[in-house]
Design goal:
Elements (H helix, E strand, L loop, with lengths): L1 H31 L3 H12 L6 H20 L3 H20 L4 H18 L4 H18 L4 H13 L8 H17 L7 H16 L3 H14 L4 H17 L2
């Protein structure tokens, strides 16, 4: 009887880990191939899980975070609002359990930024909150890259008249990258590829084109089928470089 229970527990753990890995791979493939409908499918299925454990809930939060950013970038505001409401609920459950504060503070920082994206009039109210939670994330775990990424995003998108600095943003994007690589968390990680691409874009914005090229090439070395960089970012940059000769 005890042996049967033990085997059952092992099977449940195995099935949960395979399920998680499969979701991660599906989201990764959706990201590199620009098939966000596939990402949404994974997200919707995960949101239907009754009483997910805390780690699964944190994984879900990551997918919500990425999908909302996509919706905002494509001006799908109604879709962004819908998923942001679910993400806030998910985040609050994790916060109530005091689970992984470096991550939850980072997501709270990001979500305040999304609220500004939905309503720019809220920037004076949500902007300082976003900054506060990015700093809390960094303080909670200096080895965790997520707070550093959110701080970089704030510096990048905040107008310089309000204290934003693209130079400082690049510095923190690079810090986040070093920390992510040190954790070994780069396989099937859409966040890592996104960070490489965003850093390249930030470098382009301050006219450091040759360095931006290095980051795009690094992204393609990690993932040759990363279509955003392969078909858009790098070709446009190479055109700029060629026109500058």
């Amino acid at each position: 009887m005890e042996r049967s229970k033990y085997i059952l527990i092992l099977l449940l753990v195995f099935n949960l880990s395979v399920f998680s890995q499969t979701n991660k791979q599906k989201v990764y493939q959706a990201y590199i191939s620009n098939k966000m409908a596939d990402w949404k499918t994974v997200l919707d299925k995960m949101q239907q899980i009754e009483k997910p454990n805390l780690q699964t809930r944190l994984e879900l939060l990551d997918y919500q975070y990425g999908y909302i950013a996509f919706c905002l970038g494509k001006d799908k505001e109604d879709e962004a609002k819908k998923y942001l409401e679910k993400a806030w609920d998910n985040l609050e459950i994790l916060e109530d359990k005091k689970y992984q504060p470096a991550w939850t503070n980072g997501y709270r920082s990001a979500f305040y930024g999304y609220e500004i994206g939905l309503n720019s009039m809220m920037a004076p109210f949500y902007g300082p909150k976003s900054m506060t939670y990015a700093k809390k994330s960094m303080e909670a775990d200096a080895a965790n890259p997520f707070g550093f990424l959110q701080y970089a995003n704030i510096q990048y998108y905040m107008p310089s008249t309000f204290g934003g600095s693209k130079t400082e943003a690049i510095e923190y994007y690079k810090k986040a990258m070093v920390k992510m690589e040190a954790r070994g968390d780069i396989n099937f990680n859409w966040n890592y590829l996104s960070l490489l691409a965003i850093t390249g874009q930030a470098l382009e914005s301050v006219n450091k084109l040759s360095e931006a090229k290095q980051f795009y090439e690094k992204a393609l070395k990690v993932e040759p089928n990363f279509l955003w960089v392969k078909n858009e970012l790098l070709p446009k940059l190479l055109k700029k470089l060629n026109n500058g000769k």
